[in-house]
Amino acid sequence: MLYRETGQFKTGYAADQQLFPIRQDRIAVVALLVVAFLGVPLAALTPGLAGAIDFNYWFNGVLIPFLIFSLAALGLNILTGYAGLLSLGTAAFMAVGAFAAYNFELRLPGIPMLLSFILAGVVAALVGVVFGLPSLRIRGFYLAVATLAAQFFVVWALTKFAWFSNYSSSGVITAQKMVVFGYAFDTPVRRYLLVLAIVCVMALAAKNMVRGAVGRAWMAVRDMDVAAEVVGIPIMKTKLLAFAISSFYCGVAGALYAFAYLGTVEPAGFELELSFRILFMIIIGGVGSILGSFLGAAFIVLLPIFLDLSATSIERGFGLALPAGLVSNLTLIIFGALIVFFLVVEPLGLARLWQIAKEKLRLWPFPH
Amino acid sequence: MQFFFEVLIGGLLAGVMYSLVALGFVLIYKASGVFNFAQGAMVYFAALTTVGFMSKGAPFWLAAALALAAMVALAFLTERVVLRPLVNQPQITLFMATIGLTFFIEGVAQLTWGAQVYALDLGVTDEPIGWLMDRSGMNISRFDLVASGIAAALVAVLALFFNKTRTGRALRAVADDHQAALAVGISLQKIWVIVWTTAGFVALVTGLLWGARNGVQFALTFLALKALPVLVLGGFDSIAGAIVGGLIVGASEKLAEVYIGPYVGGGIESWFPYVLALGFLLVRPEGLFGERRIDRV
């Protein structure tokens, strides 16, 4: 009864084409943004609450990684979900972004932080275009294997050439302090706000891109590239643009991963495992959906934490100590089983479930 | 020149081992169109089950038979829980499901047998063949030769199975056209179980050979990644391609490591096969023996 667009008339094209055409959606999004930007930081700064909840853990262990992975998943979703180009090299493009941002800060003293993030994205985009070139001739799983070349090559190059990590002994880099407009983002709350702002701006840009001419060209190429070519969509430009923009998103996500989340990273931290995790996010969240990237990231970030918590509470509840190997292997089994379960129940992901729920809600309490 | 041949032959023999892993992929891809990422985990699971039973005191043949039984059970389970509900889904969904399956198998394997490294002794020593060393001075391992012999025998058995038996003909029919196979009364479900069992058997042989060389350990699961460039070179749906691709990858990566490696700081084995495969794809997008795709609008 609450969620119904009855009586909301559109009187012009602008109103019809706005981002959230339903008033309830707009209210919900604004409310969500207010909570994220004001509610959460204010709660963290309230002395009474800060004692009850471990906010540092929530920021460092949950919210910041969630936002950063959402951004990376968004990047991969642009490439795989919208342009239909399967990639297994997401972590490599994140690594390029992280190391590029580090080197810009290191070698160009005084460069603004945000500018070095953007440049890091641009460098990742260039690398993405180079490894995207094969997509012009190959597709499907063959392309996935081709992107694996990027994955292994980038990690190897970052490890092998010490220049990238400023000749540190083990290839580990320590990200510089984040200072934007003379304001240091050093506490968890501040880092959270910076990441949140960047993610919001980029998600908005992505949303607008995929519903504009660019996005329609991507989807046309995804659905049938020969037909798209026949109606006059330049295949090469479209595919390479998808690679560039996707890698840009991943690059920025990688830079944030190093600067706002971990602080110190090494090339080995951007292994194939990470690429797979991000691929899981978009599959579980929903391929070809902006919202799905966020839902998937939330699911993949929260699931291990949830499994861990339940393991410890079982231990406490029954007063027994589970061997360490048992818990980690059980987590692995449950994780694998859940992925299969989700794919079986809803192959289109959480975003599709959300859509179904919304349609049900519009009719509720009537069946039709 | 002699050194060149030594590296070449060593690479070719190592390539045989890659071919074995790729073979498991090809079998499943041909029959069910599933890109089975779990092949590496299956190799690990099969080898670990064998050495696990051996460590409990079972003789080798019994342990291997029990491991094979476990692979059959896994094939039934996979068909029932993963493949059947996901029939007619896009390939990427099935691919993701097999990644989930990978985690599941890895977890079960380590939960059952522990994560430590097991040694496996097949009775063949991994040392240079004496008379060859004396005659030509080439350093060729006896183990490598035996492994290639086993691989050749395995391929021969598979070829016979595919070409001369009723089940083999059904498998080829399914690989050719699912719907036509269904129409003439071939049960897809049964075929899938058979083909996953066959892949499980290949995984067992692969796991025992690799395990005897490097120890049965978690690193075996990464074999799946080594097989990917092999598949790209040979084509996803060609058994001959898997063999030839494996040989090319094995030989070229060893040669590249020896002749190009020193100039760029070494360690290029990790990515060289992929770049090779990539360059190859640009010329022939469907691999050496893969079926050429025809686009229709």
Structure description:
The complex is a heterodimer of chains A (368) and B (297). Chain A has a domain at 54-271. Chain A is 72% helix and 2% strand. Chain A is built from 15 helices and 4 strands. Chain A has helices at residues 13-16, 23-45, 47-52, 55-82, 90-107, 113-132, 141-160, 188-210, 213-223, 225-230, 235-262, 272-285, 290-318, 324-345, 350-363; strands at 173-174, 179-180, 183-184, 264-265. A two-stranded antiparallel ribbon of chain A has the order 1-4. A two-stranded antiparallel sheet of chain A has the order 2-3. In chain A, helix 4 (55-82) crosses helix 12. The longest helix of chain A is centred in the last third of the chain and has 29 residues, at 290-318. The mean pLDDT of chain A is 87. With 297 residues, chain B is an all-alpha fold. Chain B has one domain (2-218). Chain B is 73% helix and 0% strand. Chain B has 13 helices and no strands. In chain B, helix 1 (2-32) packs parallel to helix 6, helix 1 (2-32) crosses helix 10 (223-234) and helix 2 (39-55) runs antiparallel to helix 3 (60-83). Chains A and B meet through helix 7, helix 10, helix 12 and helix 14 of A and helix 4, helix 10 and helix 13 of B.
How does the SSE layout of this entry go?
The complex is a heterodimer of chains A (368) and B (297).
Chain A (H helix, E strand, L loop, with lengths): L12 H4 L6 H23 L1 H6 L2 H28 L7 H18 L5 H20 L8 H20 L12 E2 L4 E2 L2 E2 L3 H23 L2 H11 L1 H6 L4 H28 L1 E2 L6 H14 L4 H29 L5 H22 L4 H14 L5
Antiparallel strand pairs in A: 1-4, 2-3
Chain B lengths: L1 H31 L6 H17 L4 H24 L7 H23 L16 H7 L5 H23 L1 H11 L1 H6 L4 H27 L8 H12 L4 H21 L1 H4 L7 H12 L14
Helix pairs in contact in B: 1-6, 1-7, 1-9, 1-10, 1-11, 2-3, 2-4, 2-9, 3-9, 6-7, 10-11, 10-13
